[in-house]
Every structure is written in C-alpha cells, then in structure tokens.
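step 3/5: co-fold with calcium ion
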Amino acid sequence: AKARGRGTFCRYDQAMGSAALRRLGLEAELRDALAREQIRLVYQPVRDLAAGRVAGFEALVRWSHPGLGQVSPAEFIPLAEETGLILPLGELILRNACAAAADWPGATRLAVNLSPVQLRSAGLAALVGDALRAAGLHPRRLELEITETALLQESEEALAVLRELQAMGVSIALDDFGTGFSSLRHLTSLPVDRIKIDRSFVSEVGSRADCRAVVSSVASLARQLGLATTAEGVETAEQLRLVQAAGCTEAQGYFVSKPLALGDAVALLRQDRAQ
Ligand code: C2E
Ligand code: CA
Ligand code: CA
Ligand code: CA
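step 4/5: write tokens
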C-alpha cells in the first residue's frame, strides 16, 4: 500500500510539474502570439427561432500555435487572466470583432465574451466606446457575454460599469446560466438583457425530464422579465425542437453551425439574408 502511495504521489507530482512547465512556456508563447497577432477569431451563428434566421454571431478566440497546434481558449484564457495578458488580448479581440461585424448586413448582432478581469479593469466602458467608434459599429449591435459565476461575484462598481454599457446601447448576456446558482431574485436586479442557458442542460433536454423542466422554467421566467434566452450547445434536431417548444428565443450549437472563419460567416449571412 505504501509503494502504491508513493507511486501515486510521484505521478501526481510529475503531472503537476509538467502542467506548471506548460503554463510557464505558454505564457511566453502567448505574449509572443499577442505581439505577432497570431490569434484569430471564429464566429458561431446564433439562430432566431421565431424568424428562422441568423440573429448574430458569437466571436470565439482561436490560437493556432506552430508547435503545439490548437491551444483551447479553455486553457489559455484562464492563463491570460492570471497573468494580466487578458487585458491586451481582450482589447485585440474586441477591436477585431467590432471591425469584422461592421461589414455585416442589417442588424446582425455581434457577441463578444468578456472576462471578469476586463470588467474590473479601469476604463472598460471607454474602451468599448472607442472600439465601436473606430469600427463604425452601432452600440446596439454589440452584446457582451459574462458568465453567471463571474457576475455573481462582482462588486457594485463592476455592475455599475455594465449599467453604463447598457446606457450606451450595448446589451449584456448572462453566459453559462444554470451553473452559478443565481437566485431568481438576482435575475431581477442584475444588469442583463439575455440569458444563455448552459449546454449541460441543453444536451440532456431530450433525455432528462428535470433538464427539460429547467430549460422551460428559465425560458418562461426570462420572457416574463423581458429577457431573451439563447439555448447553448444544441447538437441535434430533437434538442432544437425541444428548446424551441420550451420557449427559448434563440439557439446556438453545432446543429445550427460550428464556429466559422470570418469569410464563411459572411457567406452564410448573405445566403440567409437572401432567403
Ligand atoms: P463559451 O462562451 O460558453 O463558448 C461556447 C463554447 O462551446 C465554444 O468553445 C464553442 O465552440 C463550444 N460549442 C458551441 N456549440 C457547441 C456544441 O453544440 N457542442 C459542444 N460540445 N460545444 C459547442 P470554445 O470556442 O472552445 O470556447 C470555450 C470557452 O472559452 C468559451 O465558452 C469562453 O468561456 C472562453 N472564450 C472563448 N473565446 C473567448 C474570448 O474571446 N474571450 C474570453 N474572455 N473568453 C473566451
Ligand atoms: Ca460565451
Ligand atoms: Ca456559454
Ligand atoms: Ca460554456
């Protein structure tokens, strides 16, 4: 038992070591990638369920590293947050996404993910205003997504920044809803315009009655509060039908479309608008 214990400890220790090394290496690489702007954005369509059209796109960051291949944002965003690199990275993402969306037809919405570190940084509203002006994008076309878990921990000051953004015309979406234990009371007081129902509920909507109940309760509560609802991670026709029946206003996920390169997103939009 003792030998096994030591073996376990060694494996654990090694795993920790290589993770730490990987992080150390990645931080330098991330700085480099930022300096060279080796980071790009893909755009995942969001479908309006009543109109059956593309309502907008969510910008998702991609880092293709020459040696490491695709590094997932789930890995490098937390690292960028710890090191403070999220501020230049987040600004690059915001400016590039706004510039891309300025060429999209009509009222097509652009959603950009916002880190809580950005929300707490000084001058966020001014930065967003400047990115919109520089791109020539109307504020009403921009939505900023912040996770439920992050928003629950925010101070009054951070919430005031969100209200300032809303006053400019920018909308706010509560991302990954259902994972952060908001009380219903929160929903009436938080500065949000949309709820994005987490994929963990949507992926079970066809197989679990409790998940179906959560999705329809959230959608009907949102409707009564005047909020829009997006079902995230819709992967099948059945899930699409069920989230629509539950009253979600929009759907996003591989069944609608995977995230697309900018050119493909624009082509999809032209096709969609021609119908
Ligand atoms: P998120 O904001 O919840 O983004 C949705 C994630 O789910 C994306 O992963 C997307 O590619 C993936 N997804 C979309 N549809 C489906 C589906 O039908 N099935 C499955 N299994 N997955 C689906 P991605 O692009 O790897 O991003 C992961 C997370 O990284 C995001 O979660 C977000 O928290 C963060 N992130 C991505 N881009 C940015 C960014 O520009 N800024 C910040 N701050 N965070 C970002
Ligand atoms: Ca998001
Ligand atoms: Ca999400
Ligand atoms: Ca998620």
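step 5/5: annotate
The radius of gyration is 20 Å.
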